[in-house]
Amino acid sequence: MFILRLAAAAITLTCAACASPEPTSTPALARPDIASEAAARGQRLAAGTCASCHAVGPVGASPMREATPFREIVHRYPLDHLEEAFAEGLVTGHPAMPLFVFRASEIDDLIAYLETVKAEP
Q1: What's the pLDDT score for residue 32?
Q2: CA-CA distances (angstroms) from residue 82 to 36, 39, 113?
Q3: Which of the chain's termini has less CB crowding within 10 Å, N or C?
């Protein structure tokens, strides 16, 4: 009886190993070209949506004095907190900022772009 159970367990493990092929390609987010494309889309989104008030690049002052430059925002808040805020709708301290709600793909792109504007504090 013990030998039958052992054989059944060995067959089960062998079949399970065959059913789970090892990945043959790099995950999409790990590929540099995908990440740079997402950052480029995020830059375009930031330029079109945010740049009228915020400095969205690595240098320069914000057009609206109360609007924190993106390169400073990324040092004040962890990117995962910003990602959550983008998903829930941005609420801010300065009254001129409208409520923004972003799609999941836009959030991914914005986070990828924000990674690129990090400057030394």
Answers
A1: 67
A2: 19, 15, 12
A3: N
